[in-house]
Design a protein that fits this description.
By secondary structure, the protein is α+β, with helices and mostly antiparallel strands. The protein folds into two domains: 184 residues, no CATH class; 107 residues, Alpha-Beta Plaits, CATH 3.30.70. Helices cover 68% and strands 8% of the residues. It has a four-stranded antiparallel beta sheet. It is elongated. The two termini are 22 Å apart.
């Protein structure tokens, strides 16, 4: 009997407040979509950052005879090279350095020809025009600035180039997008909570006579409040389902089928990552709906 009463009250509430319920579904859909997108963006940053930073190398280019750098007074001497090698392999820098490889002018020339074989200017470049260098791999690729600061301006060093500087702006943009998505999601979630509370209050007001009669015949507070609470939960679950579907479609067709084909250099999040996020969308949405409903009912369902 109580179960039938709860179901009938839910049906009555949804029919009476159809427009408000649809509004809750849509606001929840938009807000949870941004929450999921923010989580997936953060996962994408982590997925891309690992392999990219693992490949980061610092190049310490040595002076040549024609170098114009203030730290250069001609080509780097053997003493300069030995000093750089010793600094890289001795404390305190050794704890940051995973490997060191010296690249001669002939090796630099061979690599240049391989990289720019289609460029007509490559034929006019000679080995003595290219600098020798130390190629440094790092234990922690995000600590590239330590090596750069240690050797910039050192005797025999023309310049220190680190690939990390190229990656930092890229990841900064991704992190900014993640933060923006989560901030917008937070604003929309607040709007959803307020809208759920308003819907519950309106439903409680419209059915105040029925709930008064039920209270007089001995209905418990749980029986009276449960239909209103479940109305909000159902609306939020519909919004979460729409958000999950939108994320699955976006990742399946926008990322896996299009972006991964256009830019195949990276690993991307997939539908499996979306399925990991989906339960959190439902749980988070239901908790917010329950909280908004309980607060509203405690104040407005007094008969």
């Amino acid at each position: 009997m109580r179960f039938q009463f709860v179901l009938s009250e839910i049906g009555i509430g949804l029919r009476r407040n159809l427009a408000m319920t649809i509004s809750v579904v849509l606001v929840t859909f938009v807000s949870l979509t941004f929450v999921g997108a923010g989580a997936l963006l953060q996962q994408q940053v982590a997925t891309m950052k690992g392999p990219l930073y693992d490949s980061v190398r610092i190049s310490i280019f040595l002076c040549t005879q024609d170098s114009l750098s203030p730290s250069c007074s001609g080509a780097a001497t053997e003493a300069n090279k030995e000093a750089i090698q010793a600094a890289l392999t001795s404390p305190p820098l050794s704890e940051y350095v995973a490997e060191v490889r010296f690249e001669s002018q002939d090796e630099a020339y061979a690599q240049f020809q391989e990289d720019f074989s289609d460029d007509e200017l490559s034929a006019s470049v000679t080995p003595d025009q290219l600098p020798e260098s130390f190629r440094v791999g790092l234990v922690d690729p995000e600590r590239f600035q330590v090596i750069r600061e240690s050797f910039s301006g050192s005797p025999g060093v023309e310049q220190v180039v680190d690939q990390g500087e190229v990656l930092e702006p890229f990841f900064s943009v991704l992190n900014t997008l993640t933060v923006a998505s989560l901030v917008l999601a937070a604003v929309m979630l607040v709007a959803a909570v307020l809208l759920i509370g308003t819907t519950i209050r309106l439903a409680a007001f419209n059915r105040r006579r029925e709930t008064g009669i039920m209270r007089l015949v001995g209905a418990s507070s749980l029986v009276l409040q449960l239909p209103f609470l479940l109305e909000g939960v159902i609306a939020v679950c519909l919004g979460a389902a729409l958000a999950s579907a939108a994320l699955l479609v976006a990742v399946r067709y926008g990322v896996s089928d299009w972006l991964a084909v256009q830019v195949p250099s990276f690993d991307y999040v997939g539908t499996a990552d979306v399925w990991v996020v989906v339960p959190f969308l439902f749980v988070g949405g239901v908790l917010l709906a329950a909280l908004a409903s309980v607060v509203s009912l405690s104040r407005y369902l007094k008969v």
